[in-house]
Amino acid sequence: MAKFDRVIKNGMIIDGTRVPRYRGDIGIRDGVIAEIGHIDAADGAEVIDATGLIVAPGFIDLHTHYDAQLFWDPYCTISGWHGITSVVIGNCGFGFAPVQPEARERAMMSMTRVEAIPLPSMEAGLPWDWVTFPEFLDSVDRAPKSVNILPYVPISPLLIWVLGFEDAKAGRLPTDAEHAEICRLLEESLDAGGCGWSAQRMLPTGPAAVQRDFDGTPMPTDVMHDETCRELAKVLRRRNEGFMQMLLVSGDNDKDQKFYEEMAEISGRPMIMNVVQAFDHRPEIHRRVLAWLQSCRERGIQVVGQGLTTDAGFTFTFEDWNLFDDIDAWCEATTGTFEERKQKLADPERRKALRENMPRTATGPLDQIVIVGPQLDKNKEWLDHSLALAGEKMGKHPVDVMLDMAVEENLETEFFAAPPNGRIDYLKEIVDDPYVLFGVSDGGAHTKFLTAGRYPTETLVKIVRDHAMISLEEAHWRLSALPAQLAGFVGRGVLRKGAPADILVYDYENLEVLEPEIVHDLPAGEWRRVQRASGYRYVLVNGEVTIRDDQPTNVHSDRLLRFGTGATQADAAIAAE
């Protein structure tokens, strides 16, 4: 009888701990790494030949919105195609539990704009066999999975449950009794396996209000009170476990930074701060944030920044676009039914305000957006023109070029907005901070115009191989071990004896991100944009091969990772070692 279920032979091991790479073998038994070193091939029931290949820990994606998609896509793609073996769901305070049956439709509608998840797919794909958060986790546990799932407790549903929908949306301050009930629900959810709590607090005025509800109104967490956050932080302090994720933008950077610090100090737990991003036109923004994060470390305050390290741009149409919401005139013109939006975008009375308030926050300057998918033959001459260039040739304002064409083509014209973080030297300044997390994939969200889930492969190809900003050893620590340690993925993120066997075997020299494509693979016939990977020879999760030569094996070996007192027995045993 073989000693190991699988043996990975002759690989170049980069174990995630930053130690120098070394050649060796890995023996896997019962889903965990049982031995590392020299192992006879005859001792394995199955042998994976890793000659000439890198063997490394699976990547961990801390910022996803797969809360719906996981029920119809066990691999949580596109993340699962790019070496991700574990994801955190429930980010930004958004989720589907606890939710009363009569509130389910409204809960799904809330996700159609803020995270741009198609409503028909949610209606067809969500089983809704839960009401409470513990029941939701039980449903996730039952669902077939090919990546591990760790859940935040999203705060928006808690506010709605306790305050009622209208009061939560209005930002009413909870009474002492209501705060106690919100905290009780959080405790119940943490007991069931939640890893902490999350909230988006993009205050609903000025440049902060970029991610809104489907009707253009703020999300409940946007208008919740600081005191509520303090009460939630105290829960983690009492438990001495868990962590927080917050996207906080009020327009007052100093105030925001102080509040992040306050949350970390009250809770005594890590705070994941979103997001560290470079803007080509304003490098002082990311430099100021990096200096602040370093000062937090020096003062022993556990605030950790998550960096936007991908240069995935936005390919979009006005059928679905929502990332101009930080400007009221654009938000108003792009909300409502399809016919209402089409009429408003055509309305000459609105155009003046739209021309005078051209967005640039999410996409860079509007006039640099490029026309990439004109639908009518007469508009094909403008293919690959920026709005500025087309406007110059037409004698029209760039806003009128964009909206006239979109309306004429039934809102189907495709535009491309390059990311505002294109400079390699600025990216290097973010990468050079050894404690900035890579990622912000937003996996499962914005699926019709964003493919940022490619970031792990992009990191290895662009940051390491092409530009030599950091070593492979450093990259794997940043992509696996660091997020695992911060987020409580017990035993994961490194290759060591006794750790869960979440392992990548890949061809470093030939690794690549493939070209974008449109696939019609969502429930109810909905479509999305994806980018696949090439070069992942094997992906193993909990010791089973889930991807072979970049193709899913349809093996569902992954698990819901219940955090804290709800940890699985296997993970609890690892923690006790």
Share of helical residues = 25-40%
How far do the termini sit from each other?
Answer: 27 Å
Overall pLDDT metric:
93
Total tally of structural domains: 3
**Biggest β-sheet: count, sense, barrel?**
9 strands, mixed
Q: How many strand units?
A: 25
Global structural class = alpha/beta
How large is the count of helical segments? 18
Percent of sequence in beta strands:
15-25%
Query: What is the CATH third-level topology name of the largest domain?
Result: TIM Barrel
Low-confidence stretches: 565-577
CATH domain class name of the largest domain: Alpha Beta
The CATH homologous superfamily of the largest domain is termed Metal-dependent hydrolases
CA-atom Rg in angstroms: 24 Å
Shape: globular
So, CATH architecture of the largest domain?
Alpha-Beta Barrel
Helices and strands in order:
Blueprint: E1 4-13, E2 22-29, E3 32-37, E4 44-49, E5 54-57, E6 59-61, E7 84-89, H1 104-114, H2 119-125, H3 133-142, E8 148-151, E9 153-154, H4 155-163, H5 165-170, H6 176-192, E10 196-202, H7 226-239, E11 243-249, H8 253-267, E12 271-276, H9 284-298, E13 303-308, E14 314-316, H10 328-333, H11 338-346, H12 348-356, E15 370-373, H13 387-394, H14 398-408, E16 414-417, H15 424-431, E17 437-439, H16 455-466, H17 472-487, E18 503-506, E19 512-513, E20 517-519, E21 528-530, E22 533-534, E23 536-541, E24 544-548, E25 551-552, H18 569-576
Parallel strand pairs: 1-4, 1-5, 6-7, 7-8, 9-10, 10-11, 11-12, 12-13, 13-17
Antiparallel strand pairs: 1-2, 2-3, 5-18, 14-16, 15-16, 18-23, 19-22, 20-21, 23-24, 24-25
Helix pairs in contact: 4-6, 6-7, 7-8, 13-14
